[in-house]
Amino acid sequence: MSDEENLRSINDNYEPKTQIIFPKLSFKEKLGLFFSKEEPPKQPKTEFFWWHPPNQSSKEKKLVFKLDVFILTYTCLSYYVKYLDQSNISHAYVSGMKEDLGLHGAQYNWIGNCFTIGIGIGGLLSLLITRFSPNIILPTFEIIWGTLCLVLYKANSFKYLAAVRFFQGLAEGTAWAIAHLILGSL
């Protein structure tokens, strides 16, 4: 027996266990249902997920909502700007940075590697949160990251660019880990 015959025999013998039977309605009945002004019967509301514990007061719910909105907005904007920075290096490389800085060989890859190594070490540096308050450390590393972004325009050699990208990764990795700690502790 060939594979084709085998498949055909499997499909021929298949019968669904449950069949959906739709009532036969005339065209007028279908139009009547479509243009009906009657409200469908309301079903009890079920919660898709529970945002708050059952016994939480309304003031506490408002406070948690405000914290979530502000912290999540700040974190999302921060990640968006950092992603733009990461992708801008590749755009700058294609748009003339290679010729301006005289990059050759695998130097572009080394710039990316320096940034990634900085992020990895920055994750370890985030352990500073055990010594200092997160409301001090997170803005500090965000400001350091922003300052390094501004300093990056002065890059005139591969070594300078790689060093700045390393320290940018260090600041970004630390801020990333601390932001996740803050989001997880709410």
UniProtKB/TrEMBL annotation:
GO molecular function, one term: transmembrane transporter activity
Primary subcellular site in the record, as a coarse category: membrane
Residue intervals passing through the bilayer: 110-129, 136-155
Ranges in coiled-coil conformation: none
Subcellular location: Membrane
Membrane topology value: Multi-pass membrane protein
UniProt keyword Membrane, yes or no: yes
Keywords: Membrane, Transmembrane, Transmembrane helix, Transport
UniProt keyword annotation of Chaperone present: no
Superkingdom of the organism of origin: Eukaryota
Cellular component, GO annotation: membrane
Name of the protein described by the UniProt record: Vitamin H transporter
